Amino acid sequence: MARRICCRTATSSSLHGHAASRYELSNPPVKTRALVDAGVSRRRIQLAAMNGPEPADPRCVMVHSNPIVGHYIGCSGQIMFPDAPRGIRLLGVANPGREARRGCYALQWLNPRGSASALPSPAHNEHVLLSGALAAPATAELAARIHAALVQERYEELRQIPGELVGCLVTPQKIYLFKTILGNSSTIFFRRSGHTVRWSTDPADLVEDPDAEIDRAALWRCCRGDGPFIYRSLDRVRPGQVVVLEPHRTTTVDYDRITPIALPRRTTLPEYAELAYQLLLEAVRPYAGGGRIGVLLSGGIDSSSVLTALVDAGADAIAYHLDTDDPLADESAYARAVCEHLDVPLVSIPTDNDAGYLSRSWDFPHPYSHTGYRYLEQAAERVAGDGVTFLLTGREGDILFGPLHYGVHDILFGDLRWREKQEMIYGLLASRWQLPRILKSCISNASLLEGSMPIGENARRSDFLAPMSGVSDEKIDYEFMPQELTMDLALFRERGILL
Fold it and tell me: H or E stretch including 428?
């Protein structure tokens, strides 16, 4: 079977901005979930370089010079359908808070470090709200095009929105919620109660009775170290989806998806690396005109590749490294080497392991079970102090580019050249995995990665937890990760940083 690469391309003929494509290496050398934004095939890249772009080819990416826009950090609202025709208030605020609000309203959360306003209303008593990075001017024309696509049910036109966004259109008769296929950890949550509909990019806004609405088993799993969503009363919008809320009906439409394009058999690992980098380069290109761009740099391959692509795209980049005084955990030498090679300034942030490591003042929209929250808080404070709006990271690189199932069987029966198979087997023998586990992975259903997943025998246990029977193992949802959402909302967006 030929290996294939999945692609979704959006042209920018109607919404002037960066056209984005998304690819999935659906049958690479080892089974992976490699999702990368904005790119074209290796052969298409070479053809375009020689002959110029071919607009007729749907895979041809057209990149425009519009700078990335970071005005919109969230949105929320409430509609009581019987009262909506009398008026829906549009409010633009830099600090939305969580106080109760009355009546019908649409709330656009604005970057506290900017002077922007909400998008102009496309029609009387109708409003468009956005959240995320927008690679196009925030104009009345943009609002009108989003309005037309939703009201006229031409949902596929939302593919042309240039950026990583969630958003909504609020009208007296319907509320349309949507999330682009390129959306990041942010999404829109919603709930219904009779004729009232409420929505928000922060789930904590919508919780009315925590004792009744929190899933206790999910909360127990959060304490164990898993990452389930705990609010049983809330629904959310998925990537590439439109949710239409009417007085007596909720309709969900999938308007965008990833589709496969065939790749030749026996594509080599260096060729895959070249392809992945070209896709990464196209993904970061819109940030080249967005002022100074920060990168949270560990010194590993993921964040280093992001920084390299930014520099190659011509961006004004600055790197931030979380420093430690533990010599066994110190990777600052790698970060310095990368920055010296790329001629990028490096800011080292000493990490706090003392009394400030934990704080009673932290206010999370969702349980956060990661040990590095304080370190990321320090990074957010420094990035905000430097006036940086966009912070890029290599987080989730293993999920996007790494294998979901990996072992000797996958290597031997993968679509690889024999020399590459030999090199990968040698790599396994030199890895941290013990020989018995490597030998066990010769069986098709055994994966070396299971040892790092909180499932079965490897489910993490905490001494302070009372046993709870019947709690299932975690199934990772690659389209939504509550930890990422919590970090984004609690640390970065409130400081005017888009992650």
Answer: helix 418-429
Tokens linked to 252: 């969900």
Question: 134 and 162 in contact (C-beta within 8 Å)?
Answer: yes
Highest mean pLDDT among 294-298, 365-369, 462-466: 294-298
Residue 10 has pLDDT above 70, yes or no: no
Question: What type of residue is 159?
Answer: R
Q: What is the DSSP string of 332-353?
A: HHHHHHHHHHHT--EEEEEPP-
Question: Mean pLDDT throughout 485-492?
Answer: 92
Q: Across all residues in the chain, what is the average pLDDT?
A: 81
Angle at 471 between CA 468 and CA 476, to 5 degrees: 140
**pLDDT computed for residue 63 by the predictor:** 41
Closest of 444, 466, 446 to residue 457, by C-alpha:
446
Q: Give SS3 for 156.
A: helix
Residue 196: HSE in the Cβ half-sphere, 13 Å Cα cutoff: 10
For residues 380 and 188, give the distance between their C-alpha atoms in angstroms, rounded to a whole number.
23
Q: What is the pTM of this model?
A: 0.82
Per-residue pLDDT tens over the stretch 335-346: 999 999 999 999
The CATH architecture one would assign to domain 69-254 is: 4-Layer Sandwich (3.60)
For the chain, state the CA radius of gyration.
23
Torsion of CA 146, 148, 149, 152, to 10 degrees: 150
**The two three-digit tokens of residue 477, written as one number:** 């949802």
Confidence of residue 381 (pLDDT cuts 50, 70, 90): very high
Q: In what order do the strands lie in the sheet with 346-350?
A: 346-350, 316-323, 292-296, 390-392
Residue 478 has a CB neighbour count (10 Å cut-off) of: 12
Residue with tokens 């070479």: 46
**Burial of residue 183 (number of CB atoms within 10 Å: 0-12, 13-18, 19+):** buried
Query: Which alpha helices (H) appear in 181-300, and where do they start and end?
Result: 210-213, 216-224, 269-284
Contact 479, 225 (CB under 8 A): no
Q: Break the chain down into helix, strand, coil percent, rounded to 5.
A: 30, 25, 45
Q: Are 424 and 411 in contact (CB under 8 A)?
A: yes
Tell me what the mean pLDDT of segment 146-151 comes to: 97
